[in-house]
Write a structure and sequence with these properties.
Layout: H1 15-33, E1 38-39, H2 41-48, H3 52-60, E2 72-73, H4 74-84, E3 91-96, H5 100-107, E4 116-123, E5 132-133, E6 136-137, E7 139-140, H6 144-151, E8 153-158, H7 162-174, E9 179-182, E10 195-198, H8 201-215
Parallel strand pairs: 3-4, 3-8, 4-7, 8-9, 9-10
Antiparallel strand pairs: 1-2, 5-6
Length: about 230
């Protein structure tokens, strides 16, 4: 059975706070890269796009309260959040579906510095199997269970077409992977205790289109279809 990232909510941290911790971490790492040693709650909240009261409450769940007149020590807060998110460990990741998106994820260099290691790439297309992508040979989907076992995979990433995603998710779960990141445009059915995070770019674009319409002054309704009358 493979291990999986700790779930901060199990330790009493609200889900909304968990969702904001990666944003704080990214902001703090940018400050760290610039050589900033301490940061006030107001400055950190502004850079992260939240209000300072919410930020202070979020960080209090980690036991970090800052120092009056000084603020937060950037390096230590990076460590606290990284530890809470499980990023001080090495998490092996397997990507299934090595199309354009799968290859882009495999080639992204930022995972390694954030505690994630791409351990395996798998695909059902025999024309793709055996190709070299991001210093890894693409394996066949039929080897998924063996790869999970031999590579110690903790997180599965699905970038397959929608029709294949559920079968891949089921195989991940049966192989002991309880953390799945799904890019396929479909809702996955998984047992209790399995965490699925869904990334649907089309939905995000549709939400942006809604707000763009509102800014353009047409109330979000856009043009009416030809031949239809409003009553």
């Amino acid at each position: 059975m493979t291990s999986r990232p700790p779930r901060p909510r199990e330790r009493g941290i609200p889900e909304a706070t968990v969702a904001r911790l990666p944003v704080y971490l990214r902001t703090l790492q940018a400050l760290q890269d610039r050589g900033t040693l301490t940061v006030s709650s107001e400055a950190l909240a502004s850079a992260a796009g939240v209000n300072s009261a919410k930020l202070r409450k979020d960080l209090s769940h980690l036991g970090s309260y800052g120092t009056r007149g000084v603020g937060y020590e950037v390096e230590y807060l990076v460590y606290q959040i990284s530890r809470e998110l499980g990023l001080t460990q090495d998490w092996a990741v397997a990507i299934v579906g090595i199309g354009n998106l799968g290859r882009a994820l495999a080639n992204y260099g930022g995972f390694g510095t954030r505690g994630f290691r791409i351990a395996a790439l798998l695909d059902a297309d025999t024309a793709m199997v055996g190709r070299r992508v991001a210093s890894l040979d693409v394996g066949h989907i039929d080897t998924l269970e063996a790869v999970v076992r031999d590579k110690g995979v903790s997180i599965g990433v699905i970038t397959t077409p929608a029709a294949a995603a559920q079968a891949v998710a089921t195989r991940f779960v049966e192989a002991g992977v309880a953390s799945i990141l799904n890019f396929a445009p479909v809702v996955l059915n998984v047992p209790d205790g399995v965490d699925v995070r869904k990334v649907d770019l089309s939905i995000e674009l549709q939400i942006l289109a809604f707000h763009a319409q509102r800014r353009n002054g047409d109330g979000g309704r856009g043009a009416e279809p030809a031949g239809l009358e409003l009553t």
